[in-house]
């Protein structure tokens, strides 16, 4: 109908919460601050970081990389004629092909560290692997990203 919808989590890593760092509830609301909507054209990917504060006043940096994918079009609809029995046929009764629609899909990285550029590069890598259909499992890529060492801001290289 209107093209508005609700986001849902399709996949997450790790699949279960870590005891010291639970998964933020309602994170899908932060991915699309203007709401989940369909668009008539494919928009360029976007990136932003939202900062969530938990009940213990600890910050969680939620990096969000959003891109748009084509969605299945609804069934073609018949175009009604102008009245019944009228001989005026400006437009014949034919199926109208609906316009192609695009839905947002977001990759989100949640961290207690504030490293926006690292987040952007990591999500960009995951996006590239996904879009190019490379034969690398996302689980392995994410596992490798989780085990990399990030230098302390202002510290040694």
UniProtKB/TrEMBL annotation:
Q: Which stretches does the entry tag as region Disordered?
A: 73-97
Give the GO molecular function terms.
guanyl-nucleotide exchange factor activity
Q: Could you mention a single GO BP entry for this protein?
A: regulation of Rab protein signal transduction
Location of the UDENN domain = 1-157
**What are the annotated GO cellular component locations?**
cytoplasmic vesicle
Tell me the InterPro entries matching this sequence: DENN_Domain_GEFs, Tripartite_DENN, uDENN_dom
Mark the transmembrane ranges. none
Pfam families reported in the protein's UniProt record:
uDENN
> Protein name, please?
MTMR5 protein
Kindly list the organism's lineage.
Eukaryota, Metazoa, Chordata, Craniata, Vertebrata
């Amino acid at each position: 109908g209107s093209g508005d919808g609700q986001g849902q989590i399709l996949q997450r890593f790790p699949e279960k919460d870590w005891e010291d760092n639970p998964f933020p509830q309602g994170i899908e609301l932060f991915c699309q601050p203007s709401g989940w909507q369909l668009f008539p054209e494919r928009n360029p990917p976007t990136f932003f970081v939202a900062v969530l504060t938990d009940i213990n006043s600890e910050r969680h940096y939620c990096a969000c990389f959003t891109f748009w994918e084509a969605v299945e079009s609804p069934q073609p609809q018949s175009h009604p004629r102008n009245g019944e029995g009228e001989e005026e046929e400006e437009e014949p009764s034919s199926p109208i092909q609906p316009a192609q629609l695009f839905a947002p899909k977001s990759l989100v990285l949640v961290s207690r560290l504030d490293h926006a550029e690292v987040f952007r590069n990591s999500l960009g890598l995951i996006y590239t692997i996904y879009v190019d259909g490379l034969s690398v499992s996302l689980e392995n890529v994410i596992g490798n990203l989780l085990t990399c060492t990030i230098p302390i801001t202002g510290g040694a290289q």
